[in-house]
Amino acid sequence: MPKTVLFIDDEIEFTGVLVQMFGPRGYTALEANSGADALDILSKTPVDLVTLDINMPGMNGIEVAAQMNKRFPKVKIVVVSGFGGEYDDELETVKVDAHVPKPLNIAALLKKVSELLGS
User: Fold this and answer.
1) Is pTM, for the whole model, over 0.70?
2) C-alpha to C-alpha distance for 27 and 7, rounded to whole angstroms
3) 81 touches 91 (CB < 8 A)
4) Number of structural domains, the chain?
5) Cis peptide before 103, with omega less than 30 degrees from 0?
């Protein structure tokens, strides 16, 4: 059964590219362009892993991760963000499984997702 990955980022083009890259590699690839949309998808669809941007309008990635930790604790979280150490203190308050920096190296993200999902 294919693993489901949800890409959460306010940059629509970015999530679209990720869906196009992961779908042909055997993943069920979904996208959300806000934290609220992501939590809605998670409440309706079984997801194995999310990639999560930190700097988003409305609910930021740390708030999304905190909600996921409470409501969907088995879903793995990979932070994909270009904000280096700016959010380190806040990130320590939530459980995340990995961090992949922007600008994104797609090969590095594919490898990390594969490692975390055992696929």
Assistant:
1) yes
2) 12
3) no
4) 1
5) yes
